[in-house]
Amino acid sequence: MARQNEALNDKGTLGRVKGWFEAAVNSKAYTSWRAEAKTSWDFYDGTQWTGEEVQRLTENGQPAIVINKIAPKIDNLAGSEVAGRTRIVYRSRSGMADEEVAARVLTDLALYVAERSEQALEISNVFRAGLVGRIGWLDIGVEDTAEGVEVFARAEDEFSVVWDPLSRRSDVSDARFVARERWLSLEEAKALFAEKAGALKSLQSDVHGPRGSVPYALAYGARGDEVGYYDPQREVYRVVEVQYRESAKQWRIRLPDGRLVATFDKSRLRIKGAVVEEMVYVPRVRVAYFSGDILLDDRALAYEHNSFTLVPFVYKRQRADGRPYGLVRAAIDPQRELNKRRSKAMHLLNTAQVIADVDAVDDPNVLVKEAARPDGVILKRAGKDLRILRNTDMAVSQVQVMEQAGRDIQDVIGVFDEAIGKQSNATSGVAIQQRQVASSMNQMFAFDTLRLLKKNLGMQVMALVRQFFTQEMVIQITDNLGAGRVIKLNEPVRDATGKQVKGADGRPLVMPDLSAGQFDVVVEEVRDVASARELEASQLEMLVRAGIPVPPDVLVEASGVAGKERILAALQTPITVNQKG
């Protein structure tokens, strides 16, 4: 009976998550976004003519010219993010000394996590994906490595992610689900879903066919590929991960030290001295995996932050259907016009019209060939009419329209030539400065949305650190002299006899206690740094500029100059003065 109920539950879960995924993949908003995003990336990458257009131009002897005005402007905006990177800082709400220490440690750990996972580069990739492909995704989680548990933040391919088409908020916080697909070999699937490996093989059989049991109309994946859940050519399976929300019991308990915590874990109710204040039903994030008609796994999210691990950066969303769009969309039409006008102008300059009597020359083919040459020689019969008309005026008009299209690209993207260092028709310094300021103002919306992404990142990193960094740890970030910041985590508190002290709930006390206290996530508008050593050096530089006397050996030790060992040795060697007398 229990197995029968479990099978019914699995079938219900499979029908729900599979229905969400397939309905979203085939929704008008998602299919329109997918087609537009692919076009946007093509234009950014320089593929701006269709195959049919290139073939037609080739038949007419016309060049398919591409003058990519979009990519430099997107790169300029993406470069502004790199040059002005911000960092995540945690602030204590209470201001108590212990919480202030924990907040500083959390800030150091956020920098440590960013260093280990190349977080700045991943965020930059997500930002550029949002500008071009309209939406970018950052995947946040933990993984086991040879050095222990590590927190990662990676850019996810936006074409492998599907979201709730009914969602309208830019951070997808109102979505019922977020899904992504993976192509796995049978061996990879066995490692993840050992109990379901045999069932996966059924997708290869004639019963299901190469598409699995999914209807033809729903066979398209997130990328729009016309395949189902098994690809016989590559012998891989499409495994779909669906993160969704489901109502669940949550207990809010008062711990012996006075802290109020919320938990889905019923075992925490047995903590010594804990008092249950209330029980409520709240949405809880669960994760399901399926392939075809096979539910591979379904369980509650292992992370206590209870949020989707896929965090989006959305430039803008269309109000009618929630479809994301980026900067490139508005520039596609003027960019296409610019290319076509340039191609037409070149064709007009390279060709000429000939008006002649039928018997004006001996060989008309020679006439056509020589008329097209700038140094052509044409021999005509006396008394016969022969005129060669150059298309210069028509070419000039095409160039003028082309130049207007180039200005239109600047207007719709909002990044003017002055902002990327190009010469323009602005002659005065005031005019140039005004256009540079206008470019900066147009970028504010994108950076404001990026701030939301970083804040969500900071909240999840804090939750993961507090959940998984529970063992006594010493994290040392050093330079080549061994100097730097040493972070001690969960150091046991001992009494005068060396015995470990326990709290009111019976748990050993540790310092700093990252599980205690409430902290605000702040995205500071300061220059980001690549390492803790660079952070210390920049802070020391600020102290020196403020007029605070900093010992020279401290400045040298925090710097990154080569051979600073010799400089420190010279500073520490006492200077002797020879006295003659």
From TrEMBL:
Origin: domain of life: Bacteria
The protein, known as: Phage portal protein
